[in-house]
Amino acid sequence: DAKTTQPNSMESNEEEPVHLPCNHSTISGTDYIHWYRQLPSQGPEYVIHGLTSNVNNRMASLAIAEDRKSSTLILHRATLRDAAVYYCILRDIFNTYNQGGKLIFGQGTELSVKP
Amino acid sequence: GAGVSQSPSNKVTEKGKDVELRCDPISGHTALYWYRQSLGQGLEFLIYFQGNSAPDKSGLPSDRFSAERTGGSVSTLTIQRTQQEDSAVYLCASSLDPGGRADTQYFGPGTRLTVL
Lengths: 115, 116
Known about the structure:
The complex is a heterodimer.
Chain A: E1 9-13, E2 18-23, E3 31-38, E4 45-50, E5 55-56, E6 61-64, E7 70-75, E8 84-92, H1 93-99, E9 109-114
Parallel strand pairs in A: 1-9
Antiparallel strand pairs in A: 2-7, 3-4, 3-8, 5-6, 6-7, 8-9
Chain B: E1 5-7, E2 10-13, E3 19-24, E4 31-38, E5 42-50, E6 65-69, E7 75-79, E8 88-95, E9 106-107, E10 111-115
Parallel strand pairs in B: 2-10
Antiparallel strand pairs in B: 1-3, 3-7, 4-5, 4-8, 6-7, 8-9, 8-10
């Protein structure tokens, strides 16, 4: 699976939008972009995923660049509960099918939210 | 519904002892994963079970580590002759459709292992 690059940390104010960037310049055509987050003292939890088009769900939005070499996770109104480490992960759908869906985690972005 | 559960939540052991960590996946999930998270090392994959297929053990760090999954449900991770470097949080995850495009892994709360 191709590698991703994320900033080590970011800060946000409560109730403001947060844009978490991820670079994946070596992404292949069959790589899906997944985001997970890990709240303090908890296991990771799924946030969102996409392939080419922008995606929205109840937790967040995912904006994918036209060339797919970068993406941005958008939290529309940050809350204190959103303070977590956010992981951007690429998953090759063909490798996933043939070899299983293990996740390869990078260092992620530690998001802190100020009241 | 019930999520992934792990036990114990905390385990303190002495160097050289064996430990067993348990994972109960979400009912009906065919895939089960073990990961560990060490301080400063991030999350790393250990082993993967899918149905009746042979497990993917490519992430196990040494032959002191083993895992089994009985009846396609509960899994036990065993660490023999524990070393201090085995101290970490051991996380279990399960998923319904590991080959699917929308596959989502659901993680348990983890077992914090401390080897003195």
